[in-house]
Amino acid sequence: MKKNPSTYYIQLTVWALLQAPHSIAFSPNSLVTNCKSRVILDAAKVGIFFGTSTGNTENAADLIVETFGDDCDGPFEIDSIGDLGGTAKKFSEYDALVVGTPTWNTGADSERSGTGWDEIYYGEMQDLNIAGKKVAVFGLGDQISYAENYADASGELHDVFESLGCKMLGYTSQDGYEHEASKAIRGDKFCGLLLDAVNQEDMTEERVQNWVSQLIDEGILEGGSVSSPTMVVESPPTSSVSLNDNDLLAQLERENAELRKMLEENSKLLDENLLNASVGPTVMEEGYAPHYNPRTERTMWTSRDGRKCYYTSGAPKLP
Asked: Which residues make Cβ contacts (< 8 Å) with residue 52, sequence separation at least 6?
């Protein structure tokens, strides 16, 4: 996971105040906003969002974040967006979005992801005002066990954002895949980056690196700078008093205490998300459907709602 930008804010604030003159003009009623020197760190331009059931899509999201580096923020699991202020608020923080999903409800006409995306597609998301926002889609699937429905949910994720007026980026070639059909195909290309963690896991890293480079070439980062902090110099107010070193340090300690509290809260939320992602079924339960992969000689058993699964060796033994 990437560090929260607030971490850097603390470090840069310390640096700025140590470099400042011993006497700084300020208004008693607005110490922070009227300091002669302050550091502002812009929010990341690209937000990475994903839904997951087994953790594979989260792993892909982590790799995408690592490849983008400091030009992105996240990844955020879509099920946790409510705790972060809601979908509209979180999406509004970024100029561009990279969104990912697995496919569980294979063959369904809609709500095919088996994740939190299904719960907001045709409700909360329909009220979003995100026309013109740049969006790229990635998805995971098993192209051998589900050759005729490979990564179908990626197509629905793409279509929902496109219907809201977003500018879709990141279409990729079907070359190198072994699927027979997919609802994620638009024209002769996939609607985004499709990955197969079961049959082509060794190709994931290279595919992600190439895709992120493609997105950058397509302009996903254009429209402002987020790569470095900006020093803003303001003129002192007409009425001012002297601020000594002790006052500066006291103010800095108060600001950092608030930031530390915020970081601790975000850390607790992250721990909860990681715990939830690691929980899955451990025993066969009634109602699980088998999906045998002859290449790996393993069977994946999925629950009726598509939210849980587990694997067994060999072909399924059905009554």
From this structure: 58, 77, 102, 115, 277
